[in-house]
Specification:
single chain, alpha+beta, eight-stranded antiparallel β-sheet, 12 helices
Length: about 425
């Protein structure tokens, strides 16, 4: 028996399918038991039960980044743990494990502050940060993981502990994902940002536009974070008429500064091609989701990523253009700035100039063919260092190892052996214990 405040669900129970289903519909969890945790003590009890029965443990808040679906063991759902507390004097926020970024953005904005959130308000803040967290303000402030102050964790032996930067295990959690336990709460730093100059420029997709954006990124200050995406738009009445059914390039901009300066910085991009739609404007940070307009509805998808030292625009367009065997969204984000500065987080390859992210919907496509297409594209562009935040679906052992610098990887495997020697927490981008 397991004694918790939240519900315990088994496959035959009403509500089981709803609880196991997250945003990612490809490879949903199907565990022996789901514990919908009402708080940290429920998490501790669920881990204790799993340890006593020699069962593995998976964790899910929103389910955006499912790596390996659990077909056995215990799934701890943290979606009911949604508390947020902001300390405006310290410029910090305390987040429970199931909090989504939208909640944090709204709470922080009431005090003239912002979190280092990503493009979507629907993503779980804790899972995003444990993977590194590459957001809209990244070139100015770095990864979200760089700004974590404290973490509360349930370990594999069912202890509740609090970790701070002085603890050996603390940096391993930041970029190491959920490999070392179940995070039940996290204290993060906030930044004094209330407004942005941001939005998107939409062009017909060409190699010239991709090349123009790449060259332009060498000229911008750290206060400007941008990306470019090549997208085949569906022919739907809900879309602006100039975009319907077209293959387009979207340059997304987030600039912390005066809108007039932002406009001058972006001006050279407008010569890259005919602008089909322009959504650039000054906006409150509470509307920052409009920059990317990520879909809010659950769907099945697969994605892989890699850090790049340089971007071969012509090759990228040839492989991800209209003639691609498998339709995919190719997105490249500009790195550098504060992202290149060292911190205690174990995020590797901070000297990379760009991160490449390839994503495909799985509806009607063979998952193996999609994965093969993604890997061939990444290989052709010279990508060898993985960025696991943007890796959706199982990663190979080599891909996981390639996400970290060599010294960090050896440290992580030793810590895994010390804190989770039986690899209880393995439904993730797994760091296997050193043997």
């Amino acid at each position: 028996m397991i004694h918790v405040n939240g519900p315990v669900l088994r496959p035959e129970d009403a509500g089981y399918d709803e609880e196991r289903t997250g945003f990612q519909l490809a490879g949903r969890h199907r565990p022996q038991m789901i514990v919908r945790a009402a708080g940290p003590e429920d998490v501790r009890a669920a881990v204790a039960h799993a340890a006593a029965a020699n069962l593995p443990v998976a964790v899910q808040a929103t389910g955006h980044g499912v790596a390996v679906p659990a077909e056995e063991g215990v799934l701890i759902s943290t979606r009911a743990m949604t508390g947020v507390r902001v300390d405006p004097a310290a410029r910090t926020a305390w987040l429970e494990a199931g909090v989504r970024w939208g909640q944090v953005i709204e709470a922080a904005a009431r005090h003239g502050l912002a979190p280092l959130s990503g493009s979507s308000p629907h993503v779980g803040a804790v899972g995003y940060t444990l993977g590194g967290g590459l957001g809209l303000l990244a070139r100015r402030y770095g990864y979200a993981a760089d700004h974590v102050r404290a973490v509360e964790l349930v370990t594999a032996d069912a202890r509740r502990i609090r970790l701070t930067p002085d603890d050996e295990l603390f940096p391993a959690l930041l970029g190491g994902g959920g490999n070392f336990g179940v995070v039940t709460g996290m204290e993060i730093g906030l930044v004094p940002v209330t407004r942005l100059y941001g939005g998107g420029l939409h062009f017909p997709a060409t190699a010239d536009v991709l090349e123009a954006w790449r060259d332009w990124t060498a000229t911008v200050p750290d206060e400007l974070t941008s990306s470019i995406a090549l997208v085949l738009m569906p022919d739907l009445p809900a879309l602006p008429e100039p975009l319907r059914g077209r293959h387009i390039a979207i340059v997304r901009i987030a600039y912390i500064g005066d809108a007039s300066v932002g406009e001058r910085l972006v001006a050279p991009l407008r010569t890259a091609g005919p602008v089909l739609v322009d959504t650039l404007r000054e906006l409150p940070y509470t509307e920052s989701e409009s920059i990317s307009n990520d879909p809010p509805f659950a769907h099945a998808y697969s994605g892989e990523s890699a850090m790049l030292g340089r971007l071969d625009a012509a090759t990228a367009f040839d492989l991800a253009g209209p003639g691609a065997a498998v339709p995919c969204v190719l997105q490249v984000r500009h790195l550098g700035g504060a992202l290149a500065k060292p911190s205690s987080a174990v995020i590797g390859h901070r000297d990379a100039e760009y991160v490449l992210h390839v994503l495909s919907a799985l509806d009607g496509h063979d998952p193996a063919a999609v994965k093969d297409t993604h890997r061939r594209l990444i290989g052709a562009l010279g990508g060898s260092a993985t960025f696991l935040n943007f890796h959706y679906g199982p990663a190979t052992a080599e891909q996981v190892r390639a996400a970290y610098d060599a010294d960090a990887w050896h440290r992580l495997t030793r810590l895994k052996a010390a804190h989770d020697p039986d690899n209880m927490f393995r439904f993730n981008h797994n760091i296997a214990p050193a043997r």
